[in-house]
Write a structure and sequence with these properties.
alpha/beta, Rossmann fold, N-(1-d-carboxylethyl)-l-norvaline Dehydrogenase, domain 2, eight-stranded mixed sheet, 3HC_DH_C, EC 1.1.1.157, NAD(P)-bd_dom_sf, 3-hydroxybutyryl-CoA dehydrogenase
């Protein structure tokens, strides 16, 4: 079969253009790389990894007349893109196909402006995603695009070792619509001083397994590119989620454009390595109380995981469950987990014996009286947690730090159930606790510096990375993650595309560990709905209203993987 599009012209050698040139050369295409002037051409050429012999670099736009496919990868401005393709229309034969790499602009309008309505497609790449085989590319058709053209472009994407995902010409498509709102939300969080730059990025990489934090991702993308994409999306939709955070405009005006300028949210040295400035911890020495013994209240998955982590780290650990049977089951669960570690070669047999020797379990809260830190990990119900904290206040020694592992409820509610709110703090471990390295340390307006310092010191001793944040619904991770997940459900409900395609775009395109809909099924749709309701109830933002499809699935008892059916079907 003849090779589709043997010669491709790429206009613009920014991040996306360079990524595309390299992919095309690896796919055995002849490439004509076009820039607006010699300085821009030199900068672009320096960022292309492909051998120079495989690429024709030029400032002459008429060179595109020799191409079978013309791809524009210029800045996100409608008139710029339309004008470039209109000029190419005059230079190129009628059979040449055009593609736009826009994130936020309408492909249909670009196609009309180009003069080739039936031969223009969108080609939405993910240059910051994994540069590997089987990454995703969104292929965007319009109501006017010829089916044969779409088929040829999808085949080209396959030839390049990528996964073509056909999507309709909606604002942002799938990847841009979900990603840009999430990134903008992260800037807003930083702008409001809710969390530091490093805390935000560390939370999302360690808590969600993302390939890079949102602020680092914006730096790599280019803050001007991000702002222009958000402006285009906001203009098309009027959706406040896309109104660029003022900090973006301020930084762009100041020339702080990210990696390409040497400074954005981070400073960059030779090779683009980020450095400088902030910390994801406390930033200054804070006194901490001595912790010799740790207590855990609960017997579920999280309580068992926290108890295992503490015992493995060398702390005598006391687990208190609601019955002797549940205490024995929790102990057995810890032992099974440690045995798996031994079988996999991750834990020496003698360390299993030592860890189990440090763990005791029972049903009497009085056993926690000698503990210096007690972590509550019971059901995510504020009344249940308040009752536990009232009991802990009664049995724990003065000066003991009392922590809740809640992922979404107000820590201050737990604190006010005691007579020592200054000693109460949040320590949000992530599941599975023995594996996940992140702990969100959550302080209320009453938390003492000593309690805060103690939580950070213990987290470090457990081998965890602690990020500090105030007591606000969602803390860092859930406040950024769940609006993104909720938007993905709304996208499915509105018929943008299939659940599998949404997940493919975000997993194989952006490089996320799994797509948003599959992640919701893993978390549990009932748990996810409860967190989304908490966010909506706290902030009263209409954009945080739980997606109707999510509510209906929970009402029908389709709770995700644990029930065999949710947004996907699961084998049981």
């Amino acid at each position: 079969m003849a090779q589709r599009f043997p010669t491709v012209a790429v206009f613009g050698l920014g991040t996306t253009g360079r990524h595309l040139v390299d992919a095309l050369v690896r796919g055995s295409r002849r490439v004509i790389a076009v820039e607006r002037d010699e300085p821009a051409l030199r900068r672009g050429r320096a960022g292309v990894a492909a051998p120079e012999s495989a690429v024709e670099f030029t400032t002459d736009p008429a060179a595109a007349a020799r191409a079978d496919l013309v791809v524009e990868a210029v800045p996100e401005r409608l008139e710029t893109k339309r004008g470039l393709l209109a000029r190419a229309h005059a230079d190129c034969p009628p059979e040449t196909v055009f593609a736009t790499t826009t994130t936020g602009l309408p492909v249909t309008e670009i196609a009309v402006g180009s003069g080739r309505t039936d031969r223009t497609v969108g080609l939405h790449l993910f240059p910051l995603g994994p540069d590997r085989e089987q990454s995703a590319v969104e292929v965007v058709g319009t109501p006017l695009t010829a089916d044969a053209v779409l088929a040829d472009v999808r085949e080209l994407v396959r030839d390049l070792g990528r996964i073509p995902v056909r999507v309709a010409d909606r604002p942002g498509f799938v990847g841009g619509a979900l990603t840009m709102a999430y990134l903008n939300n992260a800037v807003a969080m930083y702008e409001r001083r809710y969390a530091s730059r490093d805390s935000i990025d560390t939370a999302m990489t360690l808590g969600c397994g993302l390939p890079m934090g949102p602020l680092a991702q914006l730096d790599a993308m280019g803050l001007d590119t991000a702002r222009d994409s958000l402006e285009a999306l906001y203009e098309r939709t009027g959706d406040p989620r896309y109104a660029p955070a003022p900090t973006l405009a301020h930084m762009v005006t100041a020339g702080l454009l990210g990696v390409k300028a040497g400074r954005g949210f981070y400073e960059y040295g030779v090779g683009g390595a980020g450095r400088g400035g902030e910390t994801d911890g406390l930033g200054e020495p804070v006194p901490a109380r001595a912790v010799r013994r740790i207590g855990v209240v609960g017997s579920g998955t999280m309580a068992v995981g926290i108890a295992e982590v503490c015992a493995r780290a060398g702390y005598p650990t006391v687990l208190v469950a609601r019955s002797e049977m549940r205490a024995k089951e929790a102990t057995a669960a810890v032992e099974r987990s440690l045995e798996r570690g031994v079988r996999r070669g991750k834990l020496a047999p003698e360390l299993l014996t030592e860890a189990m020797g440090r763990l005791t379990a029972g049903r009497e809260l009085q056993a926690l009286g000698a503990c210096d830190l007690v972590v509550e990990a019971v059901a995510e119900d504020i009344d249940v947690k308040r009752a536990v904290f009232a009991d802990l206040d009664r049995v724990c020694a003065p000066g003991a730090v009392l922590a809740t592992s809640t992922s979404s409820l107000p820590v201050i509610e737990c604190a006010m159930a005691t007579r020592r709110p200054e000693d109460v703090i949040g320590m949000h471990f992530f599941n599975p606790a023995p594996v996940m390295r992140l702990v969100e340390v959550v302080h209320t307006v009453l938390t003492s510096k000593e309690a805060l310092g103690t939580a950070h010191a213990v987290a470090a001793a457990l081998g965890k990375r602690a990020v500090d944040c105030p007591d606000r619904a969602g803390f860092i991770v859930n406040a950024l993650l769940f609006p993104y997940l909720n938007s993905a459900v709304a996208m499915l409900e509105e018929g943008w595309t299939t659940a599998d395609d949404i997940d493919t775009v975000m997993a194989a395109g952006q490089g996320y560990p799994m797509g948003p809909l599959r992640l919701l099924d893993v978390i549990g749709l009932d748990v996810s709905l409860a967190i989304q309701r908490t966010l909506h109830g706290t902030f009263r933002d209409p954009a945080l209203t739980p997606a109707r499809h999510l509510r209906r699935l929970v009402e029908a008892g389709h709770l995700g993987r644990k029930g065999g059916r949710g947004l996907h079907l699961h084998e049981r």
